[in-house]
Amino acid sequence: MPGTLITVTAPSGAGKTTLVRELLQRDSNLRLSVSYTTRAPREGEENGREYHFVETGRFLEMRDAGGFVEWAEVHGNSYGTSRAWLAEQLEEGHDTLLEIDWQGARQVREAFPESVSVFVLPPSLGELENRLRRRGTDSEETIALRLQAALGEMRHVQEFAYVIINDRFPVAADELAAIVRVARLRCANQYKRYPQYFSFLTQD
Ligand code: 5GP
C-alpha cells in the first residue's frame, strides 16, 4: 500500500512552515519527514523534532553510505532526508511530506517520478521583505542577504508541478490540501493503493 510523496519548497519568509503545520493538523494521514542537518539548533528547536542535529562528520558518513534520498547545502549547512525512514513510511502506505529546498526537490523528482512537487511563492518581493522584517531583530545586511537567497530559490519555480501563492493564508492552506487530495487520486496511486477496484482489468 504505497503512500504518496509530496515535496514543499519555498524561500524563507513565504510562510511554508505555517502552511505545512496547518495541513498536518487537517490531515492526520500525512507524515512529515524530520531532516538531518549540520546546522546548530535555534532557540526552541529540539533534536528529533524540527531536525536531527548532527556533526558534519556524521552527516558525511550517512551521505557516503547512501543514507540520504536527497541532500543539499543550503546557506552553508548540509541538509538531508533519510532514505530508510522515507522508504518505511511509503511502504506502510503513509502519505509523506518533505519540506526541502529546490535542489532536494529536484533530486526527489528524479528518484520518485510519481512524487508531486509544490512551490510556495510570496505574493511579491516587497511583501517578502516586509515579512522578513517583521520577524524581528535581523540587521539590514541580513535582510538583504535573505532576500537575495529567496530570489535565488524563486528562480527555480518553473521546475515545480504546482505553485501556491501565499497571499491569503486560508486560501493557500486550502490549495495545499487540494494538491494533496489530487495527488492521492492519480491513477498510478489509486491502482497501487486499491488494487481490488481494478480487478476487472485482469478478468476476461
Ligand atoms: P532552516 O535551516 O531555516 O530550517 O532551513 C533552511 C532551508 O533548508 C529551507 O529552505 C529548508 O526547506 C531546507 N531544508 C530543510 N531540510 C532539508 C532537507 O532535508 N533537504 C534539503 N534539500 N533541504 C532542506
Please give a structural write-up.
The two termini are 26 Å apart. Helix content is 43%, strand content 20%. The longest helix is centred in the last third of the chain and has 16 residues, at 169-184. It is globular and about 70 Å long. The relative contact order is 0.21. It has eight helices and nine strands. Strands 2-7-1-8-9 form a five-stranded parallel sheet, sandwiched between helices. It has helices spanning 16-26, 56-64, 83-91, 102-111, 125-134, 140-154, 169-184, 187-193, and strands at 5-9, 30-32, 36-37, 52-53, 68-74, 77-82, 95-99, 116-121, 162-165. With 204 residues, it is of the alpha/beta class. Guanosine-5'-monophosphate (5GP) is lined by residues 12, 35, 39, 70, 72, 74, 79-81, 99-101, 103-104.
Structure summary:
By secondary structure, this protein is an alpha/beta fold. The chain has 8 helices and 9 strands. The structure holds guanosine-5'-monophosphate (5GP).
Q: What fraction of residues sit in β-strands?
A: 15-25%
The residue-averaged pLDDT reads 94
Share of helix, binned: 40-55%
In DSSP terms (H or I, runs of 4 or more residues), the helix count works out at 8
Q: Describe the sheet with the most strands.
A: 5 strands, parallel
Strand order of the largest sheet: 2-7-1-8-9
- SSE topology string: EHEEEHEEHEHEHHEHH
Taking pLDDT < 50 over at least 5 consecutive residues as the criterion, the unreliable ranges are none
Bound molecules: guanosine-5'-monophosphate
| Structural class label | alpha/beta
Distance between the termini: 26 Å
- What's the total count of β strands? 9
